[in-house]
Amino acid sequence: MPEIFIDGKSIQAERDQTVMQAALAHNIAIPYFCYHPSLSIAGNCRICAVQVEGRSWVEIACNMPVSEGLRVLTDSEQVRAYRKELMQLVTLNHPVDCGICDKAGECTLQDYHYQYNGSPSVSNEPKVRSTKFHPLSERIVLDNERCILCSRCVRFTKEISKSNALGITQRGDTSLVRAAEDHPLDDDPYSDNVIDICPVGALLSRPFLYKARVWYLKPTPSVCPGCARGCTIQIWHRKSEWKLNALDPRKNVSIERITPLENPAVNGPWICNKGRDLAQIFERPRAEQAMQKGKSVDLPAAIAAAGRLIGDAKRPVALVSSWGSNEELAAFKQALGGRFAAFVKEDWVPQPGERLDDDLLIRADKNPNTAAARALFPALADAAFTLDDATDLVLIWGEGFDFSRLPARARTIVLDAYAQPEHQGADVFIPVSIQTERRGHYTNFQGVVSAFEPCFPKKPTVADAETLFAAMVATGVPA
Amino acid sequence: MAKNTKLLMTFPVTPTSHTLADYRERGGYVTLDKALREMTPQEVRAEITASGIQGRGGAAFSMGRKWGVVNLNDGQPHYLCANADEGEPGTFKDRWILEEAPHLLLESMLIASYALQVRHAFIYIRGEFDLPYRRLAGALAEAYAAGYFGEEILGTGFACDLVIYRGAGSYVCGEASALITSIEGKRGYPRNRPPRLTVRGLYQKPTVINNVETLSNIVGIIAHGAEAFKQVGTTKNPGTRLISISGHINRPGVYEIEVGYPWAKFIYEDCGGIPGGRGLKAIIPGGISTKVLTGEEVAPLNLDNQELEAAGSSLGSGGMIVIAEGTCMVRLLQVMLRFYHHESCGQCTPCREGMGWLHRIIDRIVAGEGRPEDVDRLYQVSKLNDGNTICGMGDAAGYATVGILNKFRNEFEYFIEHKRSLCDGNLECHA
User: Fold this and answer.
1) Is domain B20-230 annotated with CATH 3.40.50.11540?
2) What is the pLDDT of chain A when averaged over all its residues?
3) Cβ–Cβ < 8 Å for A402, A368
4) Which of A5, A9, A250, A389 has a 20 to 30 Å separation from A138 between CA atoms?
5) Which residues of A touch B (CB under 8 A)?
6) E strand or H helix that includes residue A27
7) Is residue A103 one of the residues assigned to a domain?
8) pTM of the model as a whole
């Protein structure tokens, strides 16, 4: 444990650390563009320059090994002067078009400009023009003029996603980040992470392009339900104080984008592209009206009817959702666990073309809470399972049930968040809330419990599964 | 100093002097036999260290010290690489060795491989070298056929293979770490130090990279001993230097001079002076990345690194460019900066952006649109590159720029003020 001194402050560093790592571990700010804790050291942006006490020159901190008694200054006059001049170089050919850049507001270059430079460019030369709107993949647009060639994205595809999809062509100030010609970036399920790690607005998400200014958005911490990994994410949606009145009001309750929320225990700083596209799952047509045999009824009436069905049933079977939160599953177990023969249903199966699993994040089980559900209920074994003819009531909670497998004389109670034609035939249909409308926890395949928070208000005609089962018991099921 | 001992150019160049047969006639591969049979690797290394030979590629780093970092008993493979990517403008001295004495390089590399326990050695040769490549490849084929490479060389247990790798035309790939990155098949970006390449180099293993001329001296040092080598040249910088001289000079070409040879004598006697008997305005002594020296500064000096360093420059890679009176230094700097801009690899910010900036400023000055603050801006960008880049290229471009600005600032100010050159934009010099 070498002791080093940063700005005179004593720090216990790890043996193999660099000055940058030691500083970050102790919350000492050293600016950086190209450095990333999860990637190899490139040392190309040079903004992390620090000065070793007694030396007349500056050196980069990201590649400086710590040694016993090392004394570095992160804010000496020389370091400040160097950073200011380096920022002049970084922005020399950068268009500084923050006004029309999606990254504005969360851009490292923008922040550092105000922090370390703050002066207009001293250059009289025209800027180097380069490609705008270069389609790097179907999902990612590249603005080469904004690119500062930190090579984070290139290193990400080499070291993390291992698709080797990106490289740098040409040289000097005409260098270009380009995708390999056989389009491996399109096939890289982690490609969108390069948008997050881009320190400037060069790599842009096509779905999010010009959609919103980030300062109008609010990130709500959540858990990705896309697979059993349960990556910690942020769901970005419009701040309520910036509510839109003129445009489509649905914009106020829609997911603008999804980014990872760094969580070393689960996903590190990454998520896969499926997690970015959760809006495609959450924003499908919702079921918002309770029904009996396809006829609209009040939510309390439907709950009471479901309670009566449960009370009358002799051989009831429940298919429990592997998308239910820990709280909802426990509520079901407590209220109805004794009444039903309950099995865990696989709500989602892998879609055609979807990556099944890999070594980084993606898991073959495409449901978020199978681990918690299986801890309470046995699994619905496999596709060959048929409900036997003695079954007289089936409670189907969540999606993914093949209604052709229903026994002929069984009555049905269906709880689902999304509209399906089969719901018309259910004896009782109750719409339930989705993850973005409630609070709860998922347990991932490793047993790590992660919390999600509500982003949007729930419609009053929609039930919360957490309280629904107890309400059924209260209205009809004999104790 | 009247004597001028030759260590490399010791034979008359004939149409066959580069072949194995001729090389053997001159005593070729005898030294290899001596090293393999009579010396241990440690003894070879001790001899090289004792000779005090400095690198000839530009940095003048002690070869013995570089080799000393490699631990023979670390259980790892070691690599040796000859840097034949002679890209420094003005420098073409290694080309002479590659074309006329390829076996000297190969034999030296075998001895070096023995001393460093290298099983696989490499020669990285610049892509534009055509005849040198063909000569070298032919020599390697001859050497393989004669049993100097491969397993059980000369009947001893020593085994070594050599691969010639052709570059693809990048100046930066002459920088040692970019060179090995290029051999690895990656984009030729230089690497950050630490670690040094002798600790973690090619394929992450200890790697020694020496200039062709440096390596080629090994045969002589082992054949005649370090003491004999130290008799030549100066105490601090023993041996000879190959100087490739070009520019405004009557007899351009490659010359071997003993270190410490009088500069004026070299220019005016050996190389025939300046066309038309014009005056000497300046000399870039060792490739364009070394600082320019004016004619007056050059006159009393001897060709010795110590003396040149004291004068604020360096013998560099031995690529001497002579500049006659009447040459426009603004346009000269423009040519140089265009080169640096074109060759910047674009990896690190100061060089990537700085080279283009310098080039655009000088282009603007030459176009007659210079501004009074431009000279200071050239200084500022050069200074920002000094010591702040991954490899030495940023520094080198800065030295070149600052070197010319320091000594010929008046020409730049004249150009900016009058929108035309003080020297009529001359780069040519005719007799």
Assistant:
1) yes
2) 93
3) no
4) A250
5) 41-47, 49, 57-58, 60, 63, 65, 82, 85-86, 89-90, 92-93, 122-126, 128, 148-149, 151, 167-168, 170-175
6) none
7) yes
8) 0.94
